Request: fold
Amino acid sequence: MNITHIVGARPNFMKVAPVMNALRERKSVVQTLIHTGQHYDVNMSDVFFQQLGLPTPDVNLSVGSSTHAKQTAEIMMRLEPVVAERQPDIALVYGDVNSTVATALVCAKLGVQIGHVEAGLRSFDRTMPEEINRLVTDQLADMLFTPSIDGDENLRREGIAPEKIFRVGNVMIDSLVRLLPLAKKTCVDGVPERYALVTLHRPANVDDGARLKGILQSLLEVNRDLAVVFPAHPRTRQRIADFGLNSGQLCLLDPVPYIEFLGLQSRAAVVITDSGGIQEETTHLGVPCLTMRENTERPITVSLGTNVLVGGDPGKLRAEFSRVLSGNAKKGAVPPLWDGHAAERIADILVRQAVRQSSAAR
Ligand code: UD1
Reply:
């Protein structure tokens, strides 16, 4: 069986690594890795490949940054001849970035089967580009691997046939489980012993000058009680400069490699973020997470985990932060199947499915 993995952006890399590892153990499988080049900075891409033990991509489409339409279209144009030539039995796509939806569109029209890893998540907020990517990808996918039961329910409600849906758990947690022992031994220069870890990059938070200014003010307030450590996405750093904003005494860092960032999360008193994956990682680590969004496509991190949605309301952030300082932060549990073995379940299903198809063809 010929499996092609297509990835492009930072949050894809820790998801593809465990799936490639699990499939490497299956003798009947030949794997190809395609990088769209959506993320291209050394510290947004290369360093993740090294730390996760990913092979050098067989193909790099080097699309780079642009508007959503241009970036998606560029990926489609460059990917189409590659997929047409290689004709994989199945293309595996990950998460909800522009590379995911672009690949799904190309493969669906070339008649190549698509497997979507991290299917079924919904924020029900179509102003988020990722929500559009999730909706389209799931409609086109032939096999939908979900991380939690809400994913199955969303897909069934949208009319996806139940036999296409496989609840396997969370592959991102597979990477966390594997590399956490190493992560705990790392340290990052300039980071104090007790701190609040911050990441922000969503357009809704950083592309509006007034909103970003308000957020920085709230973080400066937090910083009076607890040092704020803020590895900034290139987009965020750019916006702070564009709007002429002042990050004052906040400890702004360049993006941190995967293993060091896991270490920073595991030791943080609290994490303040607008990322998707970090809501999941903090839930697994049992670290309090305050999410600066009005909604989440990962509701299980709120219902079971340590996540609290504070939206853009500085009052709510302050109140939840006080709970953390007074030792009363929300406690949580690890969701079912977030056990470090999700990728093995995916590999089992793919191989089983291939055997079924080849005996049906005979
Ligand atoms: C993308 C994903 C988002 C994910 C995030 C994680 C989409 C729609 N969004 O957002 O879901 O949470 O990745 O990081 O796919 N840039 C660099 N170097 C890079 C990559 C980007 O400097 O290696 C800068 C460029 O100025 C670019 C901007 O960051 O314009 C945004 O990059 P882009 O890939 O368009 O989206 P992200 O904000 O990274």
In short: The mean pLDDT is 97. The chain has two domains: 2-177+338-361, 189-255+268-325.
